[in-house]
Amino acid sequence: MSTPGFRLSESTTPRIMVVDGSKVVRKMIEGVLRQQLPAMEFIGCETGEEAKSALQSGAFSLVALTESYGALNVEGTTPSRSSVAAILQPVSLEAMDALSGIAPRPELVAQTDAIPFHYDVYDLRIPAGYTGPVKLQYLAYAAPSQVSNAFQPPVKGIEVYDWTVGTWRALPTAAPGQPQRSMSIDLKPGELAAGVVRVRAQEQNTGVVNSNLQLAAT
Hints:
It is built from two helices and eleven strands, in the order E-H-E-H-E-E-E-E-E-E-E-E-E. It is mainly beta. The protein is elongated and about 90 Å long. The protein starts with 14 loop residues before the first strand and ends with a strand. Mean pLDDT is 78; it is low at 1-9.
């Protein structure tokens, strides 16, 4: 659709008023008019009262009133107030040159459905660009044989996978008398392959181990 032309001979700088309750609509109309009349003086009014006051300021070349299109409907109803929509989009690092302050998020890749403890397998990936050595940090709990029957730790055990021989290595637990303890261990040859460290946790609820499971620079 072509934009209609405007011919206003009474003034070299036309004054145009548009009355519409929507600020967005007024701006759209102003944009269309300025394509044909770049030197115009545009006055946008939200209400009739504003328009009456503006008319006292002098003559206008054009006065236009537009029809309202109504409020925006959300799921068939009119919102009671304005709001802001937020979209959550997970992001991940593709490259880095240091692990300082960076904790690659564990990715759940497999699980069993045993009760009360089941196995969850997580991959921790190191983004391309980092070539230094890493340690595995985790929160260790006391072994079930070392605690009273009244206490069941949320994580029964943690293991790291050796990609070379295809076996799991059990990681140290907390010492007797310690409900939990932060641990940091060196990875052995074969436990890091193609930038991936695989960990298996025997836990009561999926994701419990994730709160402290991460890779760190040595």
